Recover the amino acids of this structure.
């Protein structure tokens, strides 16, 4: 609850502390020494808020603030001692005096009340203050971790874009170089995909249906440059297309299929299956592996995708990558409702 500490403060000041004072003969003392009772009441409420909003927060800091917190924690004991030393009337042992008064007759009942209420206020204010500061520190750590995760995700997204554009432009270059009739159609699809990348660049999540359409455009673009040696199968079955997913997440694995599973002289098959049911998405890819020339950043796309998954879906996803030498398989399961 957002205002829990405020409610606890009000409950203590309005209910708990007044009820605790009723244990002692406050009415008799107030009738004889009103200035003393009022002073004690003001001091106890001041002490409570001093501890809540200054002493405890300062104890969570460092340097001079921490030392000031120590001083503010010790000083109330001295002030309370001075207040309790005020002599209202000579000590008279009474059968009504309880507790410490029987053991130490010189300690008056009003002095016992001062110290008892003081310790109650000290314990309660420190307990609530420590609880509040602990929650604040925890919230700050979560905020820092969240901002760090967002920064890392943004970095991975920024790295994926040039990686993807390099590979796609390389394919377009080959089509234009060979004066392929599909070159212009490929360029149109590429422009449409660039538009999607631009519109989703600032989005953390996009509808699953839009991501699927993007994958279909990418597969269609790659098909334009393939010959009859490679067959491509894309199977999509989505029950709830309104579910969201981080943009450019699945295309990394699709791109990997076309990068390593295509040969102009050997037969190969690329299979991709995307299914969703009850919020659980399962994405499977299978492709042959043909030797390609190794370049820098060979596994950057999949590594970035793995890191994004760990940051966005910690404990809510499963990623299996099986490299059998002649074939490469990927199985990704994500709980999109998590």
């Amino acid at each position: 609850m957002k205002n829990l500490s405020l409610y606890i403060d009000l409950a203590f000041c309005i209910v708990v502390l007044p009820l605790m004072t009723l244990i002692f003969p406050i009415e008799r003392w107030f009738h004889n020494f009103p200035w003393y009772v009022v002073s004690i009441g003001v001091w106890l409420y001041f002490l409570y808020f001093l501890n809540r909003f200054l002493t405890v927060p300062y104890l969570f800091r460092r340097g001079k603030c921490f030392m000031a917190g120590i001083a503010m924690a010790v000083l109330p004991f001295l002030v309370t001692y001075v207040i309790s030393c005020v002599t209202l009337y000579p000590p008279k042992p009474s059968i009504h005096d309880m507790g410490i008064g029987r053991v130490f007759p010189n300690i008056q009942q009003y002095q016992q009340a001062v110290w008892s209420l003081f310790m109650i206020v000290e314990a309660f204010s420190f307990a609530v203050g420590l609880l509040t500061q602990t929650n604040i520190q925890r919230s700050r750590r979560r905020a820092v971790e969240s901002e760090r995760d967002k920064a890392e995700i943004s970095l991975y997204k920024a790295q994926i874009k040039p990686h993807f554009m390099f590979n796609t432009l390389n394919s377009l270059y080959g089509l234009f170089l060979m004066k392929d009739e599909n070159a212009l159609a490929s360029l149109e699809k590429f422009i449409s995909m660039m538009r999607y990348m631009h519109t989703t660049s600032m989005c953390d999540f996009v509808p699953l249906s839009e991501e699927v359409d993007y994958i279909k455009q990418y597969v269609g673009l790659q098909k334009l440059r393939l010959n009859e040696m490679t067959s491509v199968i894309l199977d999509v079955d989505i029950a709830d297309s309104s579910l969201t997913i981080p943009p450019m997440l699945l295309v990394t694995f699709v791109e990997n299929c076309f990068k390593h599973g295509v040969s102009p002289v050997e037969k190969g098959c690329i299979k991709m299956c995307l299914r969703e049911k009850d919020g659980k998405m399962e994405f499977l890819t299978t492709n042959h592996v043909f030797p390609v020339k190794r370049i820098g950043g060979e596994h950057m796309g999949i590594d970035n995708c793995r890191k994004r998954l760990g940051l966005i879906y910690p404990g809510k996803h499963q990623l299996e990558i099986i490299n059998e030498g002649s074939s490469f398989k990927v199985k990704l399961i994500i709980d999109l409702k998590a």
